Amino acid sequence: MAKPLSSLVKQVKPEVVEAARAQAEQEVFEWRLSRLREQLEVSQVELAEMMGISQPSVANLEKRGAEIKLSSLKRYVEAMGGKLTIDIELPDGHHIGMNC
């Protein structure tokens, strides 16, 4: 019988689990950034032209994931006509929105 993932995770060193979780979060962010562009039916080449950079630079931005500079993310979103906002969740559960 197959064991649940939670029981298998308990058998792995915490630092290994955390590294895997961090890697997964990075990959999800990368996927979301490229998915945003794809939903707007904009190619990397088209976005590069809108941003005034090269297509490989757009690909690099998408691969940076959580390591992307906020200013670069803002340019990326605004080049497609969007507006970047940040939602800050405080420990008490309140949210503060910020326009960038």
Folded structure, characterized:
The chain is mostly helical and about 100 residues long. Helices cover about 60% and strands about 10% of the residues. The protein contains five helices and two strands; from the N terminus they run αααααββ. It has a two-stranded antiparallel sheet with strand order 1-2. Strand 1 and strand 2 form a beta hairpin. Helix 3 (about 45-50) crosses helix 4 (about 55-65). The protein starts with a helix and ends with a strand. The mean pLDDT is about 85.
Which labels suit this protein?
single chain; 100 residues; mainly alpha; two-stranded antiparallel ribbon; 5 helices; 59% helix
Which SSEs are present, and which pair or pack?
Blueprint: H1 5-9, H2 14-39, H3 44-51, H4 55-64, H5 70-79, E1 85-89, E2 95-99
Antiparallel strand pairs: 1-2
Helix pairs in contact: 3-4
Distance between the termini: 51 Å
Provide the gyration radius in Å: 18 Å
User: Uncertain runs with pLDDT below 50, 5 residues or more?
Assistant: none
User: What kind of oligomer do you see?
Assistant: single chain
Number of helices: 5
Q: What is the H/E order? A: HHHHHEE
Helix content: 55-70%
Q: By helix and strand content, what is the structural category?
A: mainly alpha
Mean pLDDT: 86
Main sheet characteristics: 2 strands, antiparallel
- In one word, what is the shape? extended
Q: Assess the beta-strand content as a share of residues.
A: 5-15%
Number of strands: 2
Spatial strand order of the main sheet: 1-2
